[in-house]
TrEMBL record:
Residues of the ATP-grasp domain: 162-365
The name this protein goes by in its record: ATP-grasp domain-containing protein
Keyword Cell inner membrane: no
Source species, domain of life: Bacteria
Amino acid sequence: MSQVVELIVPNSAEYHLRNPSLNLTGEERERVVRFSGTYECEHSVFWSPNPRVLVLPTGWNRQWFDDIHRTLGLDPAPVVSPAMRTGLLVEDLLKDGDAQAELRELLSPYRVVRLHIVGPTPQTYLLAALVRGWGLAVELDHVDEDAYWASLYLDSKISPLDLARELPGINVAQGMVAGNWVELRGALKAMTARHGRVIARTLFGVAGDGSGVVSDAPGAVEEFLDNAGRDSFFAFPILVQQFQEHAEGVGCPAADILVGENGVEDVVLCALTVEHGYSFRSVDVGVGALPPAWGDRVTQVAHELGTAAHRLGYRGWMCVDCVAGSDDRLYVTEINARRSGSLHAGGLLRMWGAEKELTLSAHFMLPVVEGTTYEEHIRPVFQELWADGVKAYPTSVRALPWPEPIVAVIAAAPTAAQAQRIVAGIKEGIDARTAGLAAGAGAAEPSRG
């Protein structure tokens, strides 16, 4: 038996909330805790095929979990689920003695624990110390505590502006940084007068939250300021940049970058699908995600940024988001000093040894009708695909009972277009099986006549 075990802790919510400059409140905070702290956690099932123990929030579906492992040819990993007090996974684990005892027993046959997380927070270092206290060696897949500052710094949307001054191959859009409401109003008016459209972004947004596009139309600046004043994502300072028009048919290029002790060890290409110019919806992952010319540019930028991050002491996964400009230039928009939401796709590619053969299309918020269940409506659609040898999986089914139910899915094929067609077929299959639910819901609606 291996002496090494991976402890997989998808601490996405607390990572997004970790920065003291971002003080989310009310619905915004609740949404991050619920979506990132439960729904997205299930993607970690796909991170690795190695001996591992998963820490997942309560509420995961056992049938789905077993199906995924059986289809991938893996033994189901043991799971520890701490009692949900805060909705923050590591914090809840640190407050749950029973869950700690269960985890300690699962780890006890091993000598070395490799801690795999979304990204570092003060709580992850406490968790590592706890496991070391059990007499086990702990290896981090992220920065040591003395280099934690580099993770915070790189994660700010200001860092690409600094790095662009240092690295000649990095392009960033023209912009201004506003530190208060008076400056922000002036910056928006000055920048929209100059460029027509701008994007205003808080330094620590999540999946497009904390961003907004503002035009030079009459009243647009005041409308934006009114909305931002009621949104706790908009914390100062705020970056206002020229909105770069997107090149047709490319998507928003991105890359996951693994920074090791000796520098950049891996680059995984991605292409994001966004709405309104900034709001994330889906991602294609693999060498086929981008046209070759854009893929070469993103790879070069990824190596430059990863090398710069390495010099700052950063280690672990990070990702860079870009815009393929209609002017044929690649613009860096932000760095995320963490595992990206698409790294479960990269995990599958590595598991299959198919980094150069397959492209995956991952869709995070596929809407379904109320009453949809995994067992009755979703599982049969995937069973048919699995019987035909299709590599497609539901990656999160936790949100089926939510008021606006969604499911996350992923599909692999030789090309991005083929993978997208598989996803479209999955949606059609689920819709066909839930047609009766939709019809029933429509019949139950009161007359509006």
